[in-house]
Design brief:
Blueprint: E1 5-13, H1 17-27, E2 31-32, H2 41-67, H3 79-110, H4 118-126, E3 130-136, H5 138-143, E4 151-157, E5 160-167, E6 177-179, H6 186-210, H7 214-236, E7 238-240, E8 245-253, H8 257-264, E9 269-274, E10 283-284, H9 290-293, H10 296-302, H11 313-328, H12 331-347, H13 353-373, E11 404-406, E12 409-411, H14 414-441, H15 447-465, H16 481-486, H17 490-507, H18 514-538, H19 540-561, H20 578-616, E13 623-624
């Protein structure tokens, strides 16, 4: 849910400014409404300092992760020293890298010609003998017209012929590529390259050493950001009555209003608190129960909701977890995710634990979906028609969504199930849209969403009657969902569609005149109809991704067991080929798990941020609630 906010408007005697800001800073409750046009030299300096330190901190963090360093933290240098030292080492390292590339190029060019002293070529030139170097292919060398002057083949290497031409006076025409050699010997170039590599390795070790000071940078950044917020708040106080009175606007959680009133009563000031009004840029703080709160980072990938919207997090959480499970859909993969997440929860850093808890939820949903889809590392768990070689024989059990071989071909229950789940999420989105419209504009604005729900239900029932995408066939155990939906009478479907159309045309834009509503209603109806079909079919990706991952897992199993399967079909687990079987199983399923997990994360996000948010009419763009505070979080 979104925390209720109050708008604070304050007029303060100018001599109380610094004491007021200092006390407000210590209180750490009020979000200051910044003036985007206000700036000062002090604020610019602080921002520049923060940018420089943040760049160094991120670079050191990437370096530590890339090299898997775990050096003991140090604090004998301050942040300014660390930033300055990093800049000096970085500049030196870049310069050494440029020098190294030059010498590598020199070595590459000189190697085919061998190690010789370039001063000899200079001496020949002083004596009037020019030396030129050429490269060509062996075939062209054999057929080309040889120079009339002396020449010597130096090397034949890598499909090329390298030769030198010796001449006096005018240059001889040679049908080959001329090579310009650097004025340095091969041995000298190699020696310089080794010297530069040694210096660069030393610079790299110095950078590694700086990763010890990330804690120093974290604390410094927190302090600087706190100081920046204080300076920004200072600039946000507007002058009134020739500078004798200062105006101030901020936001605070409604639950802390009494605390703020007690604080403000200490100052010679006038103030008032008001409820937010439409058009106010109200900061947003999300507070959800523990399980739903784990999904807040997923919501924040797109945007915080606007203050005047419902928080979509509690509604996104179950759908995202369920979608992830369907896309990955394997009992074995789910177990792996649960184990890895439990280890991370027990051994990982504190700020990493919410993500591990989320991993346990997603792993559990993957395992449950794996049971429904009848797959354990790509192998069937329960015996169903077409999948006889299962762990549990003689029963279909909980494999509610497993593919089944029928007389007419393979039936995939997961396909209509994905469509029904998509329709359910779309309806939830439309319901939330209606609630938002009613809250912000009044009851009449909730009628159009009701009309859309009527038409969605009617269209779904009609398509089920036609058995479109096997919608009529869907059964989950004893629940014949498809038959129930398809059994909706045709006259009810007609009434729902007709009633929905009438309500849509009359109430699509209640603030407009009737004639305008009719015109806008036709355009809105076209967009709704087009969007409904494309949105509904988009949920088929839940079925497709789960099927693809299962088939790939089964393929890896088949390849792996070829190493220990004889021509007569018998399996010899004592064969030396078991090593290959184990290697293929580990490598194949690891690859499949990584790729499938990535798809299982990205595609449900797409369904939420496009299909669900579109039907919800999600506005977003919320500003995070960030109170002026001295609290330091390193």
């Amino acid at each position: 849910m979104i925390v209720e906010m109050k708008k604070l408007t304050l007029l303060l005697y100018h001599r109380e400014k610094e004491q007021f800001l200092r006390k407000l800073h210590e209180l750490g409750v009020v979000h200051v409404e910044e003036n985007p046009d206000a700036s000062s030299e002090a604020l610019r300096e602080v921002q520049e300092t923060i940018r420089a330190a943040e760049r160094v901190r991120q670079a050191l963090h990437r370096l530590e992760a890339a090299k898997k360093l775990s050096l003991e933290p140090k604090s004998d240098k301050d942040a300014d020293e660390v930033v300055a030292l990093y800049g000096e080492i970085e500049s030196r390292s870049e310069n050494l890298e440029n020098q190294l590339q030059v010498q590598k190029k020199n070595v590459s060019v000189l190697e085919p010609w061998g190690d010789f002293d370039p001063s000899y070529v200079e001496r020949l030139g002083e004596a009037g003998i020019g030396v030129r170097f050429f490269e060509t292919s062996p075939k062209k060398f054999e057929t080309m017209e040889k120079p009339a002057v002396p020449f010597e083949v130096i090397n034949r290497k890598g499909g090329s012929v390298y030769f030198a031409v010796f001449e006096r006076g005018e240059k001889t025409k040679v049908d080959a590529d001329e090579v310009t050699l650097p004025a340095i010997s091969l041995s000298t170039a190699r020696r310089r390259m080794q010297e530069i590599e040694g210096k660069k390795a030393g610079a790299d070790r110095e950078l590694d050493e700086l990763t010890r000071y990330q804690g120093v940078l974290n604390g410094f950044l927190a302090e600087q950001q706190s100081g920046r917020d204080l300076e920004s708040a200072r600039l946000s106080m507007g002058d009134q009555v020739e500078g004798r009175v200062l105006s101030f606007t901020g936001w605070l959680p409604a639950a802390k209003e009494e605390k703020i009133r007690a604080f403000l009563d200490q100052f010679p000031a006038w103030y008032r608190t008001d409820d937010p009004a439409q058009g106010d840029k109200v900061p947003v703080e999300l507070v959800n129960k523990k399980a739903a709160g784990l999904f807040e980072p997923i919501v924040n990938i797109y945007s915080l909701p606007d203050y005047f919207e419902l928080d979509p997090t509690p509604f996104i959480a179950p759908f995202f977890a369920f979608f992830f499970g369907l896309c990955l859909g394997d009992l074995g993969y789910g177990a792996v995710l649960i184990v890895v997440s439990l280890v991370g929860l027990a051994k990982g850093p504190k700020n990493f634990k919410p993500f591990m808890a989320l991993g346990i939820i997603l792993g559990t949903m993957t395992a449950v979906a794996g049971i429904f889809l009848n797959t354990f590392f790509g192998h069937p768990i329960f015996q169903v028609p077409g999948y006889e070689n299962a762990f549990v024989a003689g029963t279909r059990a909980a494999a509610l969504l497993a593919p089944v071989e029928t007389e007419t071909g393979t039936y995939f229950p997961a396909m209509p199930f994905a469509v029904y789940i998509g329709v359910l999420q779309i309806i939830v989105g439309v319901i939330l849209k209606g609630i938002n419209r009613v809250r912000n504009n009044g009851p009449v604005w909730g009628i159009q969403p009701v009309s859309h729900i009527m038409m969605i239900i009617a269209v779904t029932a009609y398509l089920a009657r036609l058995d479109f995408l096997d919608l009529k066939k869907l059964e989950l155990g004893q629940f014949a969902i498809g038959e129930v939906v398809a059994s909706v009478p045709m006259n009810v479907i007609i009434v729902l569609i007709a009633g929905g159309l009438v309500l849509h045309m009359l109430f699509n834009n209640p603030h407009k005149g009737l004639a305008m509503r009719m015109g806008l209603g036709l355009w809105d109806l076209y967009q709704f109809a087009q969007g409904l079909m494309s949105d509904g079919l988009s949920y088929l990706r839940l079925f497709a991704l789960g099927l693809a991952g299962g088939l790939l897992g089964a393929a890896f199993n088949q390849i792996a067991f070829m190493f220990i399967t004889a021509e007569d079909g018998s399996v010899n687990y004592a064969s030396v080929g078991i090593i290959g079987t184990i290697a293929v199983l580990i490598a194949g399923h690891t690859l499949n798990l990584v790729l499938s997990a990535l798809s299982a994360f990205v595609h449900p996000l797409r369904l939420i941020f496009v299909e669900f948010y579109n039907n919800l009419q999600f506005k977003g763009g919320g500003v995070p609630y960030r109170p002026l505070s001295k609290e330091i979080k390193a």
